[in-house]
Amino acid sequence: MTQQVRQLLNDRPAVRWTALILLALAMFFGYMFVDVLSPLQTALQDTKNWDPETYGRFAGSETFLNVFIFFLIFAGIILDKMGVRFTAILSGSVMLVGAFINYYALTPGFEGSGLEHFFANNLNLPKEWWNVTPFFDGMPASAKMSAVGFMLFGCGIEMAGITVSRGIVKWFEGKEMALAMGIEMALARVGVAAVFALSPLFCKMGGVIQVSRSAGFVVLLLIIGLISFITYAFMDKKLENQIGNTEEKDDPFKISDLKYIFSSKVFWIVAILCVLYYSAIFPFQKYAGNMLQCNLGISTEKAALIFTVFPLGAAAITPFLGNYLDRKGKGASMLILGALLMIICHLTFAVGLPALRGNDLAKVDAENSIITATFTDTQADADGNYRSISVVFNPGHFTDKSQADLLAGLEPGQEALINPRQAFGGVADAEAAEASAQKIANLLTDKDVSIDLNEARELNRDFSVKIEKIQAPMGGIGVFITFLAIILLGISFSLVPASLWPSVPKLIDGRLLGSAYAVIFWIQNIGLYAVPMIIGGVLAASNVGVSNPLNYNYTVPMLIFASFGVLALLFGLVLKAIDRKHHYGLELPNKKQDDAKVEFDGME
After folding, report:
1. What is the fold, at CATH topology level, of the domain defined by 4-358+477-582?
2. How do residues 133-145 score in pLDDT, each as one tens digit?
3. Measured between alpha carbons, how far is 152 from 154 in angstroms, rounded to an integer?
4. Three-class SS string for 554-592?
5. What is the DSSP letter of 470?
6. I need a labelling partner for 600 at 20 to 30 A (CA). Which of 298, 420, 426, 510 fits?
7. Looking at the whole model, is its pTM more than 0.85?
8. Mean pLDDT across the chain
């Protein structure tokens, strides 16, 4: 006679996958906000005066509280003591509050406010070695307040990360755990792709550059994410009622138990591998858009669209890798392969693209040159300032060839007068022209808003165009290699997380799992805090005298990212050797085989 067993919620595929979707949806929106400003580095410099060092400090601020106030450690303790439900709702709330502060600092309403005055006159710390904060003297007020919001948001997103990992283990242990983690990470990658595609569009909506518009859109999505966490909490409570116990164990967590985590050699190897790998990925995302602009000579929108191949490729392949890991194993081998691919990709960005893009030209070729230039209005605004914008363009695309001919023969540093409306095409009819003229008139009286090319080309008067760089167009082979490198990086980004996170439960006792994830995330956050600042400083130091964000040389920053990959490869080899010796099971499948056939009765 077949034995009947009571069916739990997580035994039902439809229910456990619904729980996963609710968790993943919140992380989807969270990852969107993490990178909502990443494609807008040029716009931030043009409209908010955020230079590379400022941008690097802001990017690193996300993890400041997690690293120096040990918030992630406390988050892990909260997770182990209070459980998944409470921590999920708390993390969603903290994310939302921090994101709103970040958004407000970028709005026109912040300009001239008491808060702007406060931040302009405070947190002006010297640029000394001991200043580990995101703030320094000369940092724009908007960047300071944005950093405050971003560091609070960072507490929420990292708390959510360990909570979601713990929640997936709870619902999928002994089942499709790696596949579930892979799908959750894949959806997060889709969030990155979505924000890279959408953020520049929202920023330039209506023809006026306004970075706050992009941030505000994702803040609204974070509200939906919080609702998803709340809905998940009801499902999780029902599962717990079926199990018949609470998330607090008979052997409750004690702070002294952290010694079992810190004393594990293999745990430290996994943690160091994690920080090395993620330090070469997430900070890179912050600079990838501008790096592609500088190396390929393309617009913000095109660079963002090209980079979406990276997270979309990762999203597409991660579930398959997770499924393979569940059924076949080979987790440690996946880590090694992922590190190898990452090294190849960053070396391509460091030396391959600059070599393939073509030499800088001595003079303009009116048909084929890629020009980096500064457009400056010949009429002053109400304050006597002459507004300008940095632009990448191809004179061969001018609608008026006579305008292209005006540039022919110019060398870097020389200037010409170009009518953007004639060169790039004007508005369609008289009514639209009148509306555009009024919009531009309003724009030019606002000292805090810069002109962009879309607005400049609606003005029927000359702009002074100063040539800064004349570049041969990227050939077909170069474009192909760019896409190939980004695709391979996406595969690398799938290999490592899909194998890394499901391996942690094999190394750490279940009751310490939340704290173990927290400690790993904390160590990871040290890299995520320091690396963007390091890259920002190196980028500034290797581009002394370069004020145009479209002219930066990214060779040294990309070599730094590649070096992280080399170290990750070495630690991956060490981890595989230790697993072979001590049999932790990192190369074994995650999914357990059913020993006997069971029938389930109905459970409400």
Report:
1. Growth Hormone; Chain: A; (1.20.1250)
2. 889 998 999 999 9
3. 5
4. CHHHHHHHHHHHHHHHHHHHHHHHHHHHHCCCCCCCCCC
5. E
6. 510
7. no
8. 80
